[in-house]
Design goal:
The protein is an alpha+beta fold. It is globular, with a radius of gyration of 12 Å. A hairpin with a 4-residue loop joins strand 3 and strand 4. The protein has a 4-stranded mixed sheet, with helices on one face. Helix content is 41%, strand content 18%. The longest helix has 12 residues.
Length: 78
């Protein structure tokens, strides 16, 4: 499963999401908007207004969402 997390350096919820993903053993790609500000426009066009933004093949969400991260774990192990 491909997982992309859009973050910023000073984002507490981004760090919490990254730690939660790591603790569950997920591989993911980080896109830091401090380094790639052009990606922020694309996220805004898709309706996102909060970081982090997590994107998988099946779904996407914003904010620190342990419930959604746990659902990913169920999909991967099923």
């Amino acid at each position: 499963m491909r997982i992309t997390i859009y973050t910023r350096n000073d984002c507490v919820q981004c760090h919490a999401t990254k730690r939660a993903m790591e603790s569950r053993g997920f591989d993911f790609e980080l896109i830091n908007l401090d380094l790639h500000p052009e990606a922020a426009d694309d996220l805004r066009e898709k309706g996102f207004r909060q970081l982090p933004v997590v994107v998988t093949e099946q779904e996407s969400w914003s904010g620190f969402r342990p419930d959604m991260i746990n659902r990913l774990r169920l999909r991967v192990t099923a």
